[in-house]
Amino acid sequence: MIKEVCVKNFTDIPRMIDAGANRIELNNDLAAGGTTPSFGVIKQSVKYAHNHNVPVVVMIRPRGGNFVYSDEEFEIMENDLQSAGMQNVDGVAFGCLTADNKLDKPKMVRLCQLARELKLDIVLHMAFDEMTHDDKIESLDWLKSQGVKRILTHGGALNTNILDNADNLRELIAHAKGKIDILPGGGITAENYQEVIAALGVDQVHGTKIVSMK
């Protein structure tokens, strides 16, 4: 079972690993939904986590808000992805959409290409949940062709209980099997993750409170 903890800075990482986190999603500014952390935070986090055999996935997101990026913002994302790769991270999480909430395929192709060149795991983050359910299903083969390893999803609007989205998530998991890992997240805690696992049959979960802090 992989417990991926979403953290907002290096300071949280030692205690989260001590509490049982075995993968880190590293962010800045979780209040804005998570943005790209600084060079120094990434470097120190990777050093510590790797010393404890824990992989680190870095958020590539230049700002909070929507996932429709200008050319200038996209250039920032390219540079941040390359910088993260140079610091020996294990993966990167990103997502680019069009104004009508479909995948921005030209931007996604470029970021996926960069990540593959750097031999990084590619994660599509919760931008995925802005898409319609049908578009999500239809996108799986294309995302697999771009080297996407897993998709972080709540299965519906983030203000809903994830177990209320179990049918949507099970359908995604069924269609994604053998293609891409589905990583449930959003509202999953140390108290309810076993219920989520039982409902969905997954072997990995994601959250800011996924491990119990004494």
UniProtKB/TrEMBL annotation:
Q: Which residues form the signal peptide?
A: none
Pfam families per the UniProt record, alphabetical = CutC
**Superkingdom, natural source:** Bacteria
MF terms in GO: copper ion binding
Q: Name one GO cellular component term.
A: cytoplasm
Q: Where in the cell is it found?
A: Cytoplasm
Question: Where does it mainly reside?
Answer: cytoplasm
Q: Which UniProt keywords apply?
A: Cytoplasm
The similarity comment for this entry is:
Belongs to the CutC family.
Descriptive protein name: PF03932 family protein CutC
Native source species: Lactobacillus pasteurii DSM 23907 = CRBIP 24.76
